Amino acid sequence: MNAFRPSRHGSRRPRVSFEFFPPKTAEMEVALWESVRRLEPLGPSFVSVTYGAGGSTRERTHATVKRMVEETALKPAAHLTCVSASKGEVDEVIRSYWEAGVRHVVALRGDPAGGLGTAYEPHPEGYHQTSDLVAGLKRIGDFEVTVSAYPEKHPEAASLDADIDALKKKVDAGATRAITQFFFDNDVYFRYLDKVRARGIEIPILPGIVPVQNFKQTAGFARKTGASVPQWLADRFEGLEDDVATRRLVAAAVCAEQVLDLIDRGATDLHFYTMNKADLVYAICHLVGLKPEKPAAQAVAAE
Question: Among the options 19, 27, 92, 202, which is catalytic?
Fold first, then answer.
């Protein structure tokens, strides 16, 4: 892959979407909204807001999404899980989103209440799996529903084929889009896409992109989620543990390389896991031709 060549697709720019997480502190609140305002002018298809295990961030997620609806031109999608909650409790959250003007939900089973690596136990009176949650959403309102997909299979799945069976159930229940777990080898994504299409699944499968802000942290999370970390990627960040400035430059180059290759190979939609940090994501979007529309006053002055 050649990181800095222009896309062969010329003016055909990709559509993008961004993921944020609800802030825990006042300082994080400021950082979140600075990132939102920075990325909003790029006109994303939608932005999503995550939801903690067991609904631990339910109120913060709801407040963040509600503010996005009220104060921005963005189309927010609220994450929703079925961990540690009854159907009645989840349905209450669904109705509150609808009342707040939210029409797009990212439906997830959610991580086990004990954390990644522990056994998942569905609530005895709850939605047992994502396909059940999708059906519940569609029963309550005409939501657009996005679900997750795993190019290297979900860590708990018996096989990749079994995991694709689970995706098919989610689609049959009403899911209209899927976003993948992050990956670093684009061949992994395209092989997965071939398998999914061969199973008759035709919904958009958006590649999930994570700009590597901290390699050690990202590699640790990848191990827990079943995403592979190629040796060439580790080599690029080797020796930069205490060199933040160089690490950021390398991160930009690596992410640009991946994104440009995805576009050259036909990807039309990209989903960025922003980690509530806008600068690197904004730079990557600029490289692929996504720029804010020039304000009318500036356009007149330039003529």
Answer: 19
* Catalytic residue list contains 19: yes
Q: Which 3-state string (H, E, C) describes the chain?
A: CCCCCCCCCCCCCCEEEEEECCCCCHHHHHHHHHHHHHHHHHCCCCEEECCCHHHCCHHHHHHHHHHHHHHCCCCEEEEEECCCCCHHHHHHHHHHHHHCCCCEEEEECCCCCCCCCCCCCCCCCCCCCHHHHHHHHHHHCCCEEEEEECCCCCCCCCCHHHHHHHHHHHHHHCCCEEEECCCCCHHHHHHHHHHHHHCCCCCCEECEECCCCCHHHHHHHHHHHCCCCCHHHHHHHCCCCCCHHHHHHHHHHHHHHHHHHHHHCCCCEEEEECCCCCHHHHHHHHHCCCCCCCCHHHHHHHC
Written as tens digits, the pLDDT of the chain (303 aa) is 333 344 444 446 899 999 999 998 999 999 999 999 999 999 999 999 998 655 557 788 889 999 999 999 999 999 998 887 889 999 999 999 999 999 999 999 877 665 666 666 777 788 989 999 999 999 999 999 999 999 999 988 999 999 999 999 999 999 999 999 999 999 999 999 999 999 999 999 999 999 998 899 999 989 888 899 999 999 999 999 999 999 999 999 999 999 999 999 999 999 999 999 999 999 999 998 998 875 433 443 444
CB 278 within 8 A of CB 38: yes
